[in-house]
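== Polypeptide entry ==
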Amino acid sequence: MAMFFTIAVIVLVFLIIFQIAKASEYVSVIKGEEKSRKEQNKVNGFFMITFLIAGLIGVYYCNKELYPQTLLSHPAASLQGEKVDSMMWVTIVITGTVFFITQFVLFYFNFKYQESDKRKVYFFTHNNKLELLWTVVPAIAMTVLVVIGLKNWYSFTGPAPTNAMQIEVTGKQFGWIFRYPGADKTFGKKYYKLIDDANSNSLGQDWTDSYNFDDVVVSQTMYCVVNKPVNLRIFSRDVIHDVGLSQFRLKMDAVPGTPTSLWFTPKYTTKEMKEQLGNPDFEYEISCDQMCGNGHYSMKGVIQVVNQEEYDVWLAQQKPNYYAAFPDKDPSTKKPQLTDTTKTTAIVKADTLKTKM
């Protein structure tokens, strides 16, 4: 119903504009083309100032109402995200200043220099200094922004610190799979032709590689430690996805056959962020920021940022995926073997009789 109402309003507005335009044509015929044009020029000049004022009021109102709903209303949840926020504010200040100046000049000049019989038109054809000014200044500004952007980009896509947690992130339609190395701190080999969801091998782990025996595989929820670097090794199992970490201000494509990487350092635990935002239902989100199919909207995961002790407890509760693929080799599922005590009792009795004799 709301959509129908919106479309009806848009159509109505276009009809009104069309009717006003037709009426203006009829008036110009009656009054004369030149006189009508001068009157319309004055009206247009007045509307330009009106639109300028109304537009600035609209920008202020939208910013006041919608800013609290944006990510910039709360701090970035990672150290790398702070740099992205800083770069964002620099960009907003530069482009925002240019926007307001150019829009003010555009609308004001339309009002001030409207057609007048008392003023002669001045044709300004060429000025080397002016062209140099509006070419060099934007070029310098853009170069500065690009350099800042590339510096930040390489800082969190380059080699991660040696003490960083290692987590594999694999996107598939339509969910996320996370893999953690076991006690050997090494990921086992995998091969896409070995992928077998029915037999608990969603990543195609090669079971002939012993490094796979202690790797932990979980779905949809990723655990990481606060104030500790996290290195994400990113893969895709089918189509192009995108690891979107909005609260951390980072993202990276997940491309089939082409591993990518990204690292960051969480600043706040999930619990601390809930308290900071006053939202008990808050969860860090990992989303797919690349259209990947009909179920793209549902491709969301959760990131739990905890302290080291909580992480260690969680990891200790996880079983290696090897035991999910081969339940018979899971030590916790094997029943203790019962020994035959009858023979043992008979032997003990015989030894006792010999001793007495």
